[in-house]
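Notes from the pairing session

We agreed to fold both candidates in a single pass and log them together. This is the raw record for the first candidate, unedited. Please don't reformat it; downstream parsing expects exactly this layout.

Candidate A
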Amino acid sequence: MAIADDALLLREGIAKVLQGGGIEVVASVGTADELLAVLDGDDLDAAILDIRMPPTHRDEGIVALERIRERGDDLGVLLLSMYATPEYALRVMGAGSGTGYLLKERVSEPQTLVRAVETVASGGSVVDPEVVEQLVRRTRADDPLARLTERERSVLELMAQGYSNGGIAQTLFLGLKTVETHVRSILQKLDLEESPEHHRRVLAVLTLLGER
């Protein structure tokens, strides 16, 4: 995988965490354009990008993600940000499956960062739990999420954080079949039509984020 961030020390820290989790880092660059050049020459499974990079330090990472998707590249892309910004998360997740949005502070949580990379590389989605918490608090009564039970809401929040059904079962101390039943119920209650599993899970997460 590749890492793009204009802060050299942070890139080195991310690389060390990933390598400790068994993930090979083949490129480390300082700008989004350099990352895109790397992707032109290498067949990678995933990439980590800072959202704010040179030259404007605004949304270069998200623009790079959108360019990657426009050209049909389905590699996993994990965006990092200093701030829990729901609007950024919506834009990132709007790029489809295989994308994620995490706060930079998660770099100090090796298991969280490694799991997030593995999730987007396999086509799943990840949203930082702090962003999820903010959005859940502002949910309106007429929101589709109001149809969910408290347990289903807990399952959806973990889906948003990139947990697999097995991971959700372990976290909530539930049986795998029980979790599968909850997931099916969530997708039905949110009126998500039958389609590939990862795609439906991304749509469910977008519902949580307020996109639909």
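Candidate B (folded immediately after A)
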Amino acid sequence: MSNSTTATTLAKRLQSSQPYWQSEAGRSLWETQRACLGPVVESRVGGHSLEMSMGPALMTMSAVAHPIRWSPTLQLAENDSTLVCPPDQLALPDRCLDVMVIHHWLEYLTDAHFTLQEAARVTADNGILVLFGFNPIGVSGLARQLRKHQQTFPWSGSWRSASRLRDWLAFVDFEVERVDYCCFRGRMSAKCGEYWESLGRRHNLPLGESYMIQARRQQRQAPVQRLKFGLKAPASPASLGVTRSGSSAHYQSRQAPATHQDQARQTDLQKSVLQKPVLHKPVLHKPRDQEID
């Protein structure tokens, strides 16, 4: 990866962005973005996180036990734990990260949707996926229309709106929980003014220079199949607990059917009854009294 053409191209783009982050405008933007990210990751303890950032590290305030930084080449790796691999082929197992942060790389990757798909793959079910991007409908986006031919960072990237990335996230089964806009500059100011920043953040106006998207994996509900209860035969009174006589009738109806031997015995019994002689009781006639002459 470090010697490939793609890695070399990404390394040049990363190096070309560093002068902007060292300028007054870049530092001001980074500070406001870090302020937006802080409340989201400060409460997450333990686990792993991965940050693919074009600027300085943003996850310094997080309590995640194992933070990882990504780099396109070994020469730009900050430490031994830096992940060096293609952005669309992250060398990580599925659903292993509690926090996944992509900071402005989607604007400078040729196949950005593949990188987003990989980021969704490595994010855990209870983890969060955070995307930072430049807002094309903000004040800086309008100024960018006058600088289309400039090849310097950040004007040379492909700025996408938050609604466009929402569609991309839906394609990888992620849903947007919140979109925060940050860095509200004055007309001629390089810094994000405190007044404009507090006003824009309070009402979350979509006019900031940058936005932060917080997304989670969609939780699919298990299908519920309702059971249909029905009786093939009418219920006896015994099943309803009405009378005692009904219980005996109900019991008789559930007795096992008579076997062949039982039927034979019953037939023999009937024959014996028919063949048994009937003894008639003699009728005694009382003699009439003789008539007396």
